[in-house]
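Question (not urgent): is this output format expected?
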Amino acid sequence: MEIVRNVLAAVEADNRQAALKLMDPDVVIDATRNVFNPGTYVGIEGLDRWRADTEEVWEVMQLKPIEFFDAGDRVVVISQLVGKGKGSGVEVDRRSAQVATIRRGRIVRWEIGYTNVAEALEAAGLRD
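Got this back:
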């Protein structure tokens, strides 16, 4: 869980290098559950493309971690998503969940956009 906490803290502090040290160079960002910009992004270039796509849609977007669940090589993060659409101005404030998979001390897969916490827990092999 510490790896995931450290990545989220580095992202919050806008410390890209600290976050990248904890990400596998071939990391997969699975954003297929997202309403906006759904897709799969691979590697550090994919991570940068995901970030650019996100910034294109959101004027403000923050994930505030609330709770972490340890599932061995996976970590489920329950967060409060707070954002404001860039074009629409629509404000969002809702719970979401993410599942990070860790191997060899680095995040190799990050599944984002779970709107149902139970689904995220199940994906990680945990029950709600």
